[in-house]
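Bit of a strange request maybe. I'm writing a small parser for structure token strings and I need a real example to test against, not something I typed by hand. Could someone generate the tokens for this chain?
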Amino acid sequence: MLFVASLMLGEPFVGINRLPHAFTSEGEVEHAVVALLRAPRAVLAVVAGALLGVVGLMLRESLRNPLAVPEMLGVSSGASAAVAACVAWGVQVPGAPLVPALLGAAVGGALTMFAIRGASSSAAVLLVGAAVSAALHALMLTALSLSDSREQGVLVRYLLGSLAGATWETVAVMAPGLVVGIPLVVLTIPALGLLRLGDDTAATLGGAPARARAVILAVACALTAVVVGPCGPVAWTGFLAPELARRICPQGTQRAWLGWSAALGALLVVTADLLARTLLHPVELPVGGLTAVVAICVGALLLVRR
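Reply from user aminoacidic:
Good idea to test on real output. This should exercise your parser:
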């Protein structure tokens, strides 16, 4: 329903009875608005939210910490730093900001994976990831302070997470990552179950918890890079979706939680993007800002209920 609503609502409003015609009537205003602007944006919101929800659950289970979120991997900070550096220093990169964001995300994830080589515990991995993220975030702030004031608006919108300007080409860029990433997520499910038992128990059963955790983190870094490249850091979706999934299905398996996390992450980002477009029209709010506010409110509510 929310996906259909995201195709209908906005300026101009397109009634549900007009949606089939809007997709087939090339050259008309409704076709441009629905098929070329709103539809790819809605698909991007679904994919981004689902991936962030899945990554959040993978991190939560592998590190055994509900605050282990994609923002702690250095991937989001790496993408942000790369985009900010290109803008601040006038580096001309084809396909900007998408290409530099993907490259920065890959570098940030690689730095995190390199830094955790000697980390033997989940707490150490989380602290190393936070340190890498903080260092890249500082680099991003430095570049932002050096950028021209006329460019800061576009840059800040990306850094806060935005789906504005999404096209079918943007969705297509994510396709290779999905084709490779989704099977890898399925293959990590046994490792997630092993790590959930704790490192000592996993080692007693003949597993290699450090190696399993490194593989899961590598897959999580890759999926996060797929999202932050075109969307920017859509904050705290990876915290809220798994938290709600665990509460909806408290006795579920990793497979069930992955499904719920993907569905709830998609629901959260689609809702946030719809509100970002319509709440203060014609002013567009940052999607990442809305998801962060919702996550903070829900997290506070859950804390109070405990």
